[in-house]
Specification:
This protein is an alpha+beta fold. The strands form two sheets. Strands 1-3-5-6-7-9-8 form a seven-stranded mixed β-sheet, with helices on both faces. A two-stranded parallel sheet has the order 2-4. The longest helix has 16 residues. The radius of gyration is 17 Å and the shape is globular.
Length: 211
């Protein structure tokens, strides 16, 4: 299994079903068009062991960039003009894959992608607009915080890029380099504003999936 850029010629968009009509409609009818128009990029999880003419999409995420009002970051000494952020515009997992940690891995992969993008263009945070209460709970498990604003009637959350950077810095240090095995998870989880148990689940999912 691995993530690749959405390609309408080799990926089966029609069969994708995550249980949410809006997300289904996006991957089936809008994802490719938005890429062609330069609006966003969509990446899909596929499994090469599935021998079909078109590969089923197991999960996907869509990312883009935008600016938001500096007033939403009142505690930060930002300039008096809109602030650049990344947006995870869409994230969904097919029903056949739900309940086995693929949602967590998809989120982590999206964050890793945005961290790499930051090498070429700056952003102060990753934002998400929650489709429903379940989505809000999901993102808050991983440290996303309220921005105290609504976008098209949806609650907007954010995760500072500094937290994303710290997250992967510790992945690299503890798992890819296999060092410092006895580090204090609680101290790190407090810095990321997530619980110790959630931190362990994130790092375990990421490590097991991407070795």
């Amino acid at each position: 299994m691995y993530f690749v850029e959405l390609n309408k010629t080799i990926h089966d968009r029609k069969s994708f079903d995550c249980g949410k009509k809006e997300l289904n409609d996006f991957i089936k009818t809008k994802g490719v068009r938005h890429m062609e128009q330069g609006i966003s990029k969509t990446f899909v999880l596929i499994d090469d062991e599935i021998s079909k003419a078109k590969k089923p999409i197991l999960a996907f995420y869509t990312i883009t960039s935008q600016t938001i009002s500096r007033e939403l970051f009142k505690k930060q000494n930002y300039p008096h003009y809109p602030i650049p952020v990344f947006l995870i515009a869409q994230l969904a997992v097919d029903k056949t894959q739900q309940g086995n940690g693929i949602g967590e891995v998809t989120l982590i992969k999206a964050l890793e992608h945005l961290l790499q993008t930051r090498k070429y263009m700056e952003a102060v945070a990753v934002t998400v607009d929650c489709l429903n209460n379940n989505a809000e709970k999901f993102y808050k498990k991983y440290g996303f915080q309220d921005l105290n604003t609504l976008q098209s009637g949806r609650k907007r959350l954010h995760l500072p890029m500094k937290s994303v950077e710290n997250l992967f810095k510790n992945f690299d240090k503890d798992y890819r380099s296999n060092k410092n095995k006895n580090r204090n998870d609680k101290k790190i989880s407090e810095k990321l504003t997530i619980t110790e148990s959630t931190w362990k689940r994130i790092r375990f999912s990421f490590f097991m999936f991407w070795q």
